[in-house]
Design goal:
The complex is a heterodimer of chains A (224) and B (277). By secondary structure, chain A is mainly α. Chain A contains 10 helices and no strands. At the A-B interface, helix 3, helix 4, helix 5 and helix 10 of A face strand 14, helix 1, strand 16 and strand 17 of B.
């Protein structure tokens, strides 16, 4: 029964209907399409794979893990948050991460998740910025999600969000997107089986350039 | 590190200062192997009095086990341009790695352009680089780092590893920006990462004048350069600008680097730099 409760909790945290605002972000995919660098489902899959293996695995994962371990320690969370800010070199990337983090925390404050209100207060006072992987660590830890499940849900949210963005951009059909997410399960499992890096790092230049070019581009369906 | 865990002194230590008449000069220079420092040149009318130094390598490049460190200090009010004569080659290795660390301090109201040529990574090369920049109040810095893989035998071999970290801090030690990547050579073949390009580089600009108008100038400068794909954005806290570049080859990258440098000079000082020998 405890396993069923844990599974249901993970499903809810990863549910695309959870009010966290993730549908408004493409993380560069919109501009990659506009620039002709992603044209179809294969391109979306390559983009998602890069986001999972070259960014999420090495940057979001260690931050999420550190935030889970720092429950309630606002000073530690603030230091973590400032490093995420410093590493987010495209402005729409860091604004998107902060906005999503704020929206996630707001929902959990309403739900009464332990730790969410204190983190939101720290956000409002400027002690923390509330980037997404930090916020995920705070609220998912508060909700009782185990570390392994939190990491799997976080990676799944990336894959599902890119699938959704690909469908809205007409790069991939809805069923094809689900097939892509299914195939990415193995990619995510392989990432989770590897040791988690201690120091966050990332290398997704094509996507990062796209987020930068989005600032002045004509394609504005998404916030980045 | 020596037996006591201390980092050895840098093989290159340059200190630029500003003379009372306004001209910048090398107050101190130490260059041990593999570095050789050109004489201090005054190449441009603007920025007025800027000192230009060309770094040359007497070695064959970075070899397994090498540890190269450099320090560049630009004292308050001085202006310096530091570049390299050619690219640094990182040679093939058999299980070990090489390391290059650079530390830059730009004093109050000073200006540094630190624009070395890109590193060339041979098959099975494994290298770690760091670039630490400390920016005092009112100081400006333009920096770049770039990496390209070269496979002379065309055997389809890639470099083993590249770890590169660039940090920008203010005088109090507060972290302003951090670019950290750790990759293996397989990344070059990943469409979702490189979008079919072979070379990547980063260019940063921090300090007064590194604003949205200059960002627009940089975007315009990159337009029309064949084989280059780049983006420009504001650094966290509006401390400056950051440009990520992908390029088809080293020639296209060089064109992009020069275009960004010229655009910065034109917008900040009203004139482009003169032709270099």
């Amino acid at each position: 029964m405890a396993d069923a409760v844990a599974l249901l909790l993970a499903l809810q945290m990863g549910d695309s209907a959870f009010p966290s605002g993730g549908f408004g972000f493409s993380w560069g995919l919109e501009t990659l399409k506009a620039d002709g660098l992603v044209r179809d489902g294969a391109g979306v899959t390559a983009f998602a794979t890069a986001q999972l293996t070259r960014r999420w695995a090495s940057a979001d994962r260690p931050v999420l893990r550190a935030a889970l371990a720092a429950q309630g320690d606002i000073d530690s969370l603030g230091r973590l948050d400032r490093e995420v800010e410093a590493m987010s070199l495209a402005s729409e990337q860091r604004e998107g991460s902060r906005r999503l983090g704020r929206a996630l925390v707001r929902s959990h404050v309403t739900m009464g998740t332990p730790g969410a209100a204190a983190f939101q207060a720290a956000q409002r006072s400027g002690r923390v910025l509330g980037h997404l992987p930090v916020a995920q660590g705070v609220v998912w830890g508060g909700a009782g999600l185990a570390r392994e499940a939190a990491e799997a849900v976080s990676a799944f949210v990336v894959a599902a969000g890119i699938g959704q963005a690909g469908v809205r951009l007409a790069l991939i059909g809805p069923v094809e997107a689900q097939a892509m997410i299914a195939a990415l399960r193995q990619v995510i499992a392989a990432v989770l089986a590897r040791p988690c890096p201690e120091r966050p790092h990332a290398f997704v230049p094509a996507a990062e350039i796209a987020v930068m070019r989005h600032e002045t581009g004509d394609a504005r369906l998404f916030a980045n | 590190m020596n037996a006591r865990g201390e980092a050895p002194p840098p093989q290159l230590d340059l200190v630029f200062a500003r003379a009372p008449a306004g001209e910048s000069y090398l107050l101190r220079q130490y260059a041990g192997f593999p570095f050789h420092v050109s004489r201090c040149l005054q190449l441009d009318a603007e920025p007025n009095g800027m000192a230009t130094v060309l770094l040359q390598s007497l070695g064959a490049g970075l070899l397994q086990g090498d540890r190269v460190a450099m320090a560049v200090t630009v004292q308050a009010g001085a202006q310096a341009h530091v570049t390299t004569q050619g690219s640094s080659v990182v040679h093939s290795m058999a299980g070990g790695c090489a390391r290059q660390d650079a530390r830059i301090v730009v004093g109050e109201g000073a200006l540094l352009e630190y624009l070395p040529r890109p590193m060339i990574l041979f098959p099975r090369a494994d290298v770690a680089t760091t670039l630490e920049i400390v920016l005092q109040a009112g100081a400006s810095v333009m920096w770049c780092d770039g990496y390209l893989a070269h496979d002379p035998q065309r055997a389809g071999e890639r470099f083993t590893g590249l770890s590169a970290e660039t940090s920008l801090r203010d005088g109090s030690g507060t972290l302003l920006a951090l670019d950290r990547l750790v990759v293996d050579g397989a990344v070059l073949d990943e469409e979702g990462v490189m979008a079919g390009y072979a070379v990547h580089a980063s260019v940063g600009l921090a300090g007064p004048g590194a604003d949205e108008a200059l960002a627009a100038g940089w975007r315009t400068a990159l337009e029309g350069i064949e084989g280059v794909h780049g983006g420009v954005s504001a650094l966290p806290g509006a401390t400056g600008l950051f440009c990520r570049l992908l390029a088809r080859d080293g020639i296209a990258l060089r064109q992009a680097m020069l275009a960004l440098w010229r655009a910065m000079r034109l917008m900040r000082f009203g004139v482009e730099p003169g032709e270099r020998p």
